[in-house]
Design goal:
Layout lengths: L6 E7 L20 E6 L2 E5 L4 H11 L5 E6 L4 H4 L14 E6 L9 H8 L15 E6 L5 E5 L2 E8 L5 E8 L2 E6 L11 H7 L4 E5 L18 H11 L3 E5 L7 H14 L4 E2 L5 E3 L1
Parallel strand pairs: 3-4, 4-5, 5-6, 10-11, 11-12, 12-13
Antiparallel strand pairs: 1-2, 1-14, 2-3, 7-8, 8-9, 9-10
Helix pairs in contact: 4-5
Length: 279
């Protein structure tokens, strides 16, 4: 009897905008965006927010090497601020590739942007002090990639200031989509997102606001959990994970969202830091 390979998702950071540690965010977590997806023996990481530090700390504590891919939705600070504190990046026996799909249209490169983040006066040590073997890939959102071992990556352009990229991981007959930092248009469903998430098993979606809050933040580049439900229903996606929580949404508030979301789309939930899901 054949055994299907593990396809696992783990949330290391679920917060948006800025890290917000404190008593009121203990249960859902205060670290910014970082999601690990393991496809058999291959490791993919999505976004390098402050949650990346926790992943790196665990890998170092377990003596594990990091050989994989780091896909960035975009390079706002809440999505890259964990990279300078990622322990495996300082170890020469680690090797990983970094990807971004929004910079080429601006005439910039991912390596250039990360170098700027880690130069004086913003940070005390430069990017080239990271001893891991790193490769940088700039692409146009909308491309697909075959990573080998049955892992395929789909991408889509998202509606966010400065640009952003959504991702789909297909592996072992299942699929996970990572769609954060995107703003919807009221009364419309984004065609590019619908195509990306079509028939997927889990959609991790930008739920920074609720529909009731959204009018106060129109133009800020974010969406709502209710819009995520509408997209999943239209695309035949099975489950929604509400993600990129507003720093002002405490545990009690998110408990309410979690209850309403579970009723709206069976099996759906509000993402919590540390949660691991086997698909």
């Amino acid at each position: 009897m054949s055994v299907e390979p593990d396809f696992r998702v783990r949330f290391w950071g679920v917060r948006g905008t800025v890290a917000c540690p404190g008593e009121s965010t203990l249960r859902y977590g205060g670290n910014t965006a970082c999601v690990e997806i393991c496809c058999g023996g291959r490791r993919l990481v999505f976004d390098a927010g402050t949650g990346l530090r926790l992943l790196g700390r665990q890998l170092a504590a377990n003596g594990e090497r990091f050989q994989g891919h780091l896909f960035l939705t975009h390079t706002h600070i809440d999505h890259i601020g964990g990279l300078p504190f990622f322990k495996p990046a300082y170890m020469a026996d680690n090797c990983f590739e970094l990807w971004a799909g929004h910079l080429r249209q601006q005439g910039r490169t991912l390596q250039e942007v990360l170098c700027r983040m880690m130069e004086s006066p913003y940070f005390p040590v430069p990017l080239d002090i990271l001893h891991a073997c790193m490769a940088f890939h700039d692409f146009e959102a909308g491309q697909r990639f075959d990573l080998g071992d049955g892992i395929e990556i789909g991408t889509a352009k998202l509606n966010h200031p400065g640009g952003a990229t959504g991702y789909r991981v297909d592996f072992a007959g299942r699929s996970v989509c990572y769609v954060t930092d995107t703003e919807h248009r009221e009364g419309e469903l984004d065609r590019r997102i619908l195509e990306l998430i079509q028939g997927s098993d889990l959609v991790i979606y930008d739920a920074t606001y609720t529909d009731e809050e959204y009018p106060r933040f129109r133009g800020w580049g974010h969406s709502t959990w209710q819009q995520g439900v509408r997209l999943c229903r239209a695309a035949g996606a099975r489950r929604l994970a509400a993600f990129h929580h507003d720093p002002e949404h405490d545990d009690q508030f998110l408990d309410g969202v979690d209850e309403a979301l579970g009723k709206a789309l069976d099996g759906s939930f509000v993402a919590r830091e540390g949660t691991s899901i086997l698909l």
